[in-house]
Write a structure and sequence with these properties.
Blueprint (H helix, E strand, L loop, with lengths): L14 H5 L3 H7 L5 H8 L8 E7 L18 H8 L2 E7 L5 H10 L3 H4 L16 H7 L3 E5 L17 E3 L19 H14 L5 E7 L12 H4 L6 H24 L5 E7 L19 H4 E2 L1 E4 L8 E8 L3 H8 L14 H4 L10 E5 L1 H6 L4 E5 L3 E5 L4 E4 L15 H18 L14 H10 L8 H7 L9 H15 L3 H14 L4 H13 L3 H14 L4 H13 L3 H14 L5 H12 L3 H14 L4 H14 L3 H14 L6 H11 L3 H14 L4 H13 L3 H14 L4 H14 L3 H14 L6 H14 L3 H23 L1
Helix pairs in contact: 8-10, 18-19, 18-20, 19-20, 20-21, 20-22, 21-22, 22-23, 23-24, 24-25, 24-26, 25-26, 26-27, 26-28, 27-28, 28-29, 28-30, 29-30, 30-31, 31-32, 32-33, 32-34, 33-34, 34-35
Length: 790
């Protein structure tokens, strides 16, 4: 395989911008060092034959690991790697979010170049060169084992990996979100063990991602109890757990006989605030708590044991350093630099400024993004109210000394501007909105999907946005509302988010949370109002567009819902969810060809969403009478997700259409066994049992259908008929028939209700009532026939 052709883009306004770079910044970017000394240290190694195992520990602070001086830590395996390897005292993450940070690690470039600025909705482009691609081309077998959906292959990090273990089982989760879909570290290590046992005898690169230190912290025993007495017991316990997994992998490599020729890297994508600056988790701020991360590199060379590097490095340095270590060329677009010269004790002169950013406040709340540069001595944060911190005297970053050290702010701001000019990829920042033709714009505005003509990036330049420092308490209340909502505490969630919106009517995420609460509590009109308010602030806010489309779908306003899902596809053509929803809508509209087209597209885009898509495809083919295709799709859906709703029900319909009533009974019973409240399966099973003369069982399943859905009119009518056929419970049969008619007086089955009443009244000698119901039934039956002809 050859690497994709690449082109490096720089967003320089003019050649003069380069000349304006500060001398200090040039020193940062120009690697120097005693290469001969580095070569001597690496001489015992067959560098081109080394294996590499790289751990990325999600949400792991450097200062909660033993070798970084944390007393309560139980991290003997990581500490041992540091003792016998290289520990970097100060490593800085570019983004305190998982996907953007890993994108920087694997491309060696800043977010402004690779373009991934947030979790979800961003994709690492195929035109970016990854570490795995370089190693694969150079002859390494590549594998990856990830623990969270946020790193699913759909986001693009699978580039260059022969094996990419994601395969998340969405059926296990009540709600699907980037945070909720995850697997334990033990499962990840199990997958790696299976791969290692089966791997051919050749050099390999394996990436192992462990998510356990991410909230909610829930380590297994004994780690949950072992550190219970410390302030951050569960968090520290989760880190202790992943440390034990690092030890397991090292033992595997030893048993395999490859440890002595394997480089082991322990890194982290970002840290965790743990309440500092009022932030409980991460993603919002870019202080040391969330961007100062561990970095340990264990190289099997005697001269590289027990080294501590005090120079500041960045996560983007991992890729070029590893390639340098293996003797491979570094792709020209890489913006990090090799830290190997630092191993010889010779560093570039001047301070090394590390970059961090968070666009999370802007994308989710309409508040300002944050950018920072830091040295080991100072951090400068570009914000509506700029910040400068003395990291030596004030390591907790509690006192903003901007007014005392304006010189630092000015110097770092100049360097930041120079960096943005030098390292911004073409078309990355700002991200342009999808163009709309006039007709589409007018239609979407009328339906509330477009709040105006201004993109968020332009909005940020038209006037100052709120400072995240001033909104952190509101942010916490929004997060509390989301937690309460996820647990079904709707009143509590709504009260919290109502208070946030009262203080900040422009908080988009708060409006979106309240819209979801409204939708979950059967108030789609309120959800529509809040979504429209959010879209008036940001017309590209995909979450609000999705919720708005869902609200219209609940109301069976199919055209409005279709407009929303199509808008989502304009904004993100690679998202399979709108196709699935469009397929379901077109099924309801009886436009089966359109349904099939969208569902096939969903499967092509995202095989992991296939279970639902295959299931709906089966239903669509069934409606078209293409029984063999329908059966094939339904069996595929069950193979991917054995407990998926409606698949066995639809297989029962296929069996009935083929005249195989025994098979139909079997499939309906399977559906009920998995989903006892599946009222259509109860109802259809009742009808099959009626044909077999099992009236008692028919009645049992009709009652179950009504219990599962008290609004299911047809079940009342057929239960009334069953009682009438038995000649039993005739007063109850009358009430059942009348209730079914009240629920849906114009249903295709409604004439049956009138005929059942007529039959009962005839038996009771109530001639007038009998004639009246008989005539009602005949008139309705004719009306329905006429309507069907039209």
């Amino acid at each position: 395989m050859t690497l994709k052709s690449r082109r490096r883009y720089f967003g320089l306004a003019a050649a003069g911008a380069v000349l304006a770079l500060t001398a200090a910044w040039f020193l940062v970017l120009r690697p120097r060092g005693n290469r001969a000394e580095v070569g001597r240290l690496l001489a015992p190694l067959q560098r081109s034959e080394l294996n590499v195992v790289m751990f990325t520990l999600d949400t792991t602070r450097a200062d909660h690991i033993g070798c970084y001086g944390y007393g309560p830590a139980e991290t003997p395996n990581i500490d041992e790697l540091a003792r016998t390897g290289i520990r970097f005292e100060r490593a800085v993450a570019e983004v305190p979010l998982t996907l953007p940070s890993h994108s920087s690690i694997f491309t060696g470039t800043y977010p402004s170049f690779h373009g991934v600025r947030d979790n979800g909705g961003f994709y690492l482009g195929a035109d970016r060169t990854t570490l795995a691609e370089v190693l694969k081309q150079a002859g390494w077998e590549t594998s990856a084992f990830v623990a969270a959906f946020v790193l699913d292959s759909r986001w693009g990090l699978n580039q260059g990996f022969d094996t990419y273990y994601d395969n998340f089982d969405f059926a296990k989760y009540k709600t699907i979100s980037l945070d909720s879909v995850r697997r334990s570290g033990g499962e990840v290590i199990g997958a790696f063990r299976d791969w290692l046992d089966a791997a051919p005898r050749k050099k390999f690169f394996s990436w192992i991602h462990l998510y356990d230190p991410h909230a909610p912290y829930d380590p297994p025993e004994p780690f949950k109890s072992r550190l219970a007495g410390t302030r951050w017991g569960l968090y520290d316990g989760a880190i202790a757990y992943v440390d034990s997994l690092v030890g397991e992998v090292r033992d595997m490599l030893s048993r395999k006989g490859v440890l002595e020729r394997t480089v082991i890297i322990v890194a982290a994508d970002h840290g965790e605030s743990l309440g500092e600056h009022h932030e409980s988790t991460h993603g919002f701020f870019i202080y040391d708590a969330t961007v100062s991360v561990p970095l340990i590199v264990h190289v099997p060379a005697p001269g590289l044991q027990g080294k501590v590097v005090s120079s500041q490095v960045e996560n983007i340095d991992i890729m070029p350093s590893l390639l340098d270590l293996l003797g491979l060329p570094v792709p020209p677009e890489v913006q990090g630099r090799s830290f190997l010269p630092a191993l010889a004790g010779v560093e570039p002169g001047g301070p090394r400024l590390a970059y961090s950013e968070s666009y999370y406040p802007r994308y989710h709340y309409g508040w300002s993004e944050l950018k920072s540069l830091s040295s080991p001595e100072f951090r400068y944060v570009r914000a509506p109210v700029p910040e400068v911190y003395d990291l030596v005297r004030d390591p907790g970053e509690l006192k903003n000394i901007i007014y005392d050290r304006r010189d630092i702010a000015d110097r770092y701001e100049k360097a930041l501007k120079d960096m943005e000019a030098r390292f911004t990829g073409k078309g990355v920042d700002p991200l342009a909105p999808q163009a709309l033709d006039d007709d589409s714009r007018e239609k979407l505005m009328a339906l509330g999907y477009v709040g105006g003509f201004t993109s968020p990036s332009r909005l940020s330049r038209q006037g100052p946005l709120p400072d995240p420092k001033d909104r952190i308490l509101l942010f916490n209340r929004i997060k509390q509302a989301e937690s309460a909502s996820a647990e079904g505490r709707w009143d509590e969630a709504k009260a919290l988010v109502d208070g946030v919106i009262a203080e900040d009517p422009g908080a988009m995420e708060a409006l979106q949370v309240r819209a979801r609460i409204a939708l979950e509590t059967s108030r789609p009109d309120d959800a529509i109002d809040d979504c429209r308010a959010a879209l008036a602030i940001d017309p590209e806010y995909a979450s609000a567009i999705y919720t708005l489309a869902q609200a219209y779908k609940v109301q069976k306003k199919w055209d409005e819902a279709i407009a929303g899902y199509e808008r989502l596809l304009q904004l993100d053509p690679r998202d399979a969810k709108p196709h699935v929803n469009l397929g379901e809508i077109y099924l309801n509209k009886k436009d089966f060809d359109s349904a099939i087209g969208h569902l096939q597209e969903a499967v092509a885009l995202d095989p992991q969403i296939g279970a639902m898509a295959h299931n709906l495809l089966g239903a669509a083919y069934l409606e078209k009478g293409r029984l063999d295709q329908a059966e094939r799709e339904l069996l595929l859906s069950l193979e991917k997700r054995p407990r998926i709703p409606d698949a066995h029900y639809n297989l029962g319909l296929i069996a009935e259409a083929r005249g195989d009533l025994a098979k139909a009974v079997e499939e309906y019973k399977k559906e009920i066994g998995i989903h006892p409240a599946a009222y259509p399966a109860h109802f259809n099973l009742a009808l099959v049992l009626m044909k077999a003369g099992s009236l008692d069982q028919e009645i049992e399943h009709l009652k179950a259908a009504i219990a599962a859905d008290p609004g299911f009119a047809k079940a009342y009518l057929f239960l009334a008929k069953a009682y009438t056929d038995l000649g039993e419970n005739l007063p109850e049969a009358i009430e059942l028939a009348r209730k079914g008619l009240r629920l849906d007086p114009e249903a295709d089955s409604a004439p049956l209700g009138h005929y059942v009443l007529a039959d009962i009244f005839d038996r009771q000698g109530r001639t007038k009532d009998y004639m009246e119901e008989l005539e009602k039934g005949r008139r309705l039956e004719q009306r329905l026939k006429d309507r069907a002809v039209r």
